[in-house]
Amino acid sequence: MTDTRQRPSKRERTLAALVEAGLELFERQGYEQTTVAEIARAAGVTEMTFFRYFPAKEHLLLDDPYDPVLTAAIAEQPRDLQPFVRAARGIRAAWRALPEPETPVIRRRVRIAANTPSLRGAVWRSTGNTEQAIIEQLVADGASPDVARVAAASVLAALVAGLFMWADEERSTLADAIERALDVIEVAA
Amino acid sequence: MTDTRQRPSKRERTLAALVEAGLELFERQGYEQTTVAEIARAAGVTEMTFFRYFPAKEHLLLDDPYDPVLTAAIAEQPRDLQPFVRAARGIRAAWRALPEPETPVIRRRVRIAANTPSLRGAVWRSTGNTEQAIIEQLVADGASPDVARVAAASVLAALVAGLFMWADEERSTLADAIERALDVIEVAA
DNA sequence: CGCCATAATGTTAGCCACTAACATTATGGA
DNA sequence: TCCATAATGTTAGTGGCTAACATTATGGCG
Cβ of B184 and A84 within 8 Å? Predict the structure, then answer.
């Protein structure tokens, strides 16, 4: 209490403790084998408290607040491109701009998700907001809703596949992995 | 018992009863609002019996045995195409060949899935086998594993998006919807 | 037709994710 | 220091799902 530096509020501290405890337990003994009660105990709180911070167990891993960056990047792509290509190039640009220092934490999370079958669906569902955001951006710029839906889904799938590849690679940079993934689907366009 | 025609075995009858009861309840009151116990009761069996037929509630909707057809169709596409294009054209061909009479049941299922947020992820996860089959086919014909993974994921995402669109359209044919979806991602290739 | 191995189903008990309603304690600013 | 309010705890319950064991039904065989 004698520390004059901004001390993190209790809420921030509990959140950090839960995240750290969760990640470590998931890594040590697997996602399925780890109980929410266990995570809570390791973080010094109750099971109920966990659910006050995360709506579900899987949300400890999936929080991605990347939507605004992505949609902005897509908006900047030339409007005369086909929606699919436009979305792909936007995502490419957005991730190229991501600060490298942030990637270790992302890698920890993605690595767990990539290696837990039951989480693959969860990851996909968690992209729902991002997907919606992309669709709206594309439609706002003149694409038909149906076309936008397919384009968004397909490009996001490539992105997730790229993330999963990268998570297990150890040496490569995130931006590179994403670029490689998008190269696969942006053929001859 | 005096009927001389092949009578369905008890196992077949129970399975049919569960599927029909499930679909109807899901349609009437929603997937989340329907309990497994409820479905079982409507089918004249116990909750336990339900789980002897389906490993999980969602599997009543997601059973797709389409993998062999798909991989065969992909295998028939020219090998000098890029993997992504090859997969897309294979899927196109496979669904074009699907007998129209089968589609009403598919529509019932997809419609429920498309309108239940928690199931969107489940659908994606359920494509896991198909995804794996596609990857293996592409790799067997010379694609790199990484490229194959991205191509399979991306093309399947477009397929699912197409299915979801179609489910709520009422008038259009399944093959048409799939073609439209694949057109979006097969740009200028 | 009746016997019986075996398939199909039922029972009970329990774990875990998650929720609701209400009670308690801690925090940090006035 | 006091106190409104944020943070956490307690209890009780629902629904999906599993395991171990008990019971009943089915249908081919003698």
Answer: yes
Domain region containing A161: 67-185
Nearest one of B69, B129, B127 to B98, comparing CA atoms: B69
Long-range contacts made by residues B161-168, C-beta under 8 angstroms, separation at least 24? B161/A149, B161/A150, B161/A153, B161/A154, B162/A150, B163/B110, B163/B114, B164/A149, B164/B110, B164/B113, B164/B114, B165/A146, B165/A149, B165/A150, B166/B107, B166/B110, B167/B107, B167/B110, B167/B111, B167/B113, B167/B114, B168/B111, B168/B114, B168/B115
CATH number of residue A167's parent domain: 1.10.357.10
Q: List residues of B whose CB lies inside 8 A of any A CB.
A: 82-85, 117-118, 120-126, 128, 146-147, 149-158, 160-162, 164-165, 180-181, 184-185, 187-189
A124 and A178 both lie in a single domain: yes
- The answer to whether residues A177 and A104 belong to one domain is yes
Rounded Cα distance between B156 and A121, Å, is 13
Residue with structure tokens 């259009």? B172
Q: Mark the ranges of chain B whose per-residue pLDDT is less than 50.
A: 1-5, 189
Q: Residue B91 has what pLDDT? A: 95
Structure tokens at B10: 């008890």
Q: Select from A124, A153, A161 the Cβ nearest to the Cβ of B121.
A: A124
**Structural domain includes residue A150:** yes
Same domain assignment for residues A26 and A72:
no
Residues A18 and A94 in one domain: no
pLDDT in tens, A76-130: 999 999 999 999 999 999 999 888 888 898 899 999 999 998 898 888 888 888 9
Best residue in B58, B132, B178, B185 to probe A by mutation, most A CBs within 10 Å?
B185
Nucleic strand C under 7 Å from the C-beta of A34: yes
Q: What's the pLDDT tens digit per position in B31-75?
A: 999 999 999 999 999 999 999 999 999 999 987 777 888 999 999
Contacts with A124 from chain B: Cβ below 8 Å: 120-121, 124-125
CA A146 centroid distance within chain: 24
Token pair in block for residue B82: 């890029």
